Amino acid sequence: MKRRFCLIFLVCLLAVPCPVPAADAFNRDAPLEITSDRLEADDVSKTVVFIGHVVGRQDDLTIHAGRLTVHYRQGRQIRTIVAEEDVRIIQGERVATGQKAVFDRQEATIVLTGDPRVNQGKDFVAGERITVFLDEKRSLVEGGEKERVRALFHPRSKDNGQNPAR
């Protein structure tokens, strides 16, 4: 059960689009390794919680968080997965950070909050809230009272032929 929840979480976070080129294809058949200081499962509240220095690795994707909570329905169907406390999602050169990431399975969205930012190399996008619509392969970066949307894209180098802004 623990392996299935984390695999779905890792796969869904991989789909987070970034305004820069995606890394190579993710190998969903690769072995999955999850470590934490503690695991608590509660069938009454229908949650599984990984606590303390949570690290999930599969293929080239790594997720770090202080806490990861899986909320499920009857029949163990995942409803939401919440990563909290210094969340960092790494895939190749792409790094997404925030204090909280919420995956809603029904809505097929991931919402990053708490100073969310997505970097790839020198390029980045940031705001108060980043919402990723997984089925639509689009994202929304919102500003707010504390912070406006910020993005930085570097021009294409003639040497490497990459321009993340195009």
Can you tell me the CATH topology?
Answer: lipopolysaccharide transport protein A fold
CATH class: Mainly Beta
- Main structural class: mainly beta
Number of helices: 1
CATH architecture: Sandwich
- Per CATH, the superfamily is Lipopolysaccharide (LPS) transport protein A like domain
State the domain count.
Answer: 1
Helix fraction by DSSP (H/I, runs of at least 4): under 10%
Roughly what fraction of the amino acids lie in strands?
A: over 45%
Uncertain stretches: 2-26
Total strand segments: 12
Keywords: Periplasm, Signal, Transport
Organism: Geothermobacter ehrlichii
GO molecular function: glycolipid transfer activity; lipopolysaccharide binding
GO cellular component, one term: cell outer membrane
